[in-house]
UniProtKB/TrEMBL annotation:
Membrane topology: Multi-pass membrane protein
Organism listed in the record: Paramormyrops kingsleyae
Major facilitator superfamily (MFS) profile domain location: 28-480
Family: Belongs to the major facilitator superfamily. Organophosphate:Pi antiporter (OPA) (TC 2.A.1.4) family.
Annotated protein name in UniProt: Glucose-6-phosphate exchanger SLC37A2
Amino acid sequence: MRSSLAPGIRLITSFSRESWYRGYTLFLTFVFYTSYHLSRKPISIVKSELHRNCSFTIQPLHLNATNNETWCDWAPFDQDNYQTLFGALDNSFLVAYAIGMFFSGIFGERLPLRYYLSTGMLLSGFFTSLFGLGFYWNIHSIWYYVFVQAMNGVVQTTGWPAVVACVGNWFGKGKRGFIMGIWNSHTSVGNILGSLIAGVFVSSAWGLSFIVPGIIIAVTGVICFFFLVERPEDVNCNPPQHHECPEQEPLLRNASSTEEIFSSPQPVNREPVHQEEEAISFVGALRIPGVIEFSLCLLFAKLVSYTFLYWLPLYIANVAHFDSKGAGDMSTLFDVGGILGGILAGLVSDYTKGRATTCFVMLIVAAPMLFLYNQIGQNGLATTIGMLLLCGALVNGPYALITTAVSADLGTDESLRGNSRALSTVTAIIDGTGSIGAALGPLLAGLISPTGWKNVFYMLITADLLACLLLSRLVIKEVRGWCGYSTRQRGFKEI
């Protein structure tokens, strides 16, 4: 009598070859973009070390400093205009990122994704480490740090369009919001890891807060070069089915919820393709229904998210009086909330088939929560933790949904007639427009914060409401679609 197959082996063999490749690709791209965000985070942690109140720090005997409040600061951030200089650092990265993103998608469609990603990660590691080397080289010129940040912003644009295009090549629309909600947690995981790694070195040798993440992203670039599989066709797997039956509404609809994400697509009749797909033009991508609305909405949603990304540790240090490491550790709770918010947004949008409405509701609820966080967020440790988790979920949920599932939906829209090469350009347009807001948020925070932190929160609330307003047309369209669908379903049941 033959012995039964071991449960673990039975589980392994239950998945098809295509399923393993899909899971493998999802894991690799998750690691890749985690390393991108991991290398961006240190600057927000190190800010509170570059400028701090030195009057509470014991001055070494060998150091003869004239100013007791700035002797431990790192020039040129030891002056009263340090917040403006921090804003310059943030915006040198974010403006370069926003401009570069519009071109990145175009290059991403025309170059092999494996080479493109690998090169981008190696260069990101180089420039991230270069910022940290300023500590060991004793560099005190603001222009050095601004230049390094700007160059890092340019090379970091290689990441997002490429990883979204790669995932879009492997996955169809079934449960796309859920699977990409989980996958998009790489943003928050990267922020958390970046905060924790930077926090280890920030008080002793802040240069290592940049050098260690720089080495990590460079190593992942090498892994990408040797192991990334760009398309199912490259390993003789079947490509996913991006489009639905002609009877269904194409814009931002999902396949049946019973479709398995990791299963092989059912065989379909396809005409043989004898020529290379042409890359879509920038104007052609803008004509896809929904691209402009979601792009402008993301501008304001990302303004809020990136203001928290770059200024939350400093806010916690100033208002709650945490030290640099404590403020950085506490700020990771915002990203933990972002992970939960991204998954929740994906689940809800898959179930309701309403991407725009899901974003709209979360943004509307986020506005009063931001006001409450500024008012009562520091009233005890439990309140701080709860408000950070809640605000993180409501702020980053819509941001995550738009940059992943929505971008992939639009980039494989039925109006493109199967041209999958549009995905990188559509993703770059949406995220590039959002990156303009990402640049404006920290800049405005740097300008407004000297007048009081409450004014910064008023600015964030205003941006949140504008994001809702820009989605109103798509929300109305989705609600009307639900009403019509519900009526037909009731009539069918009565028959």
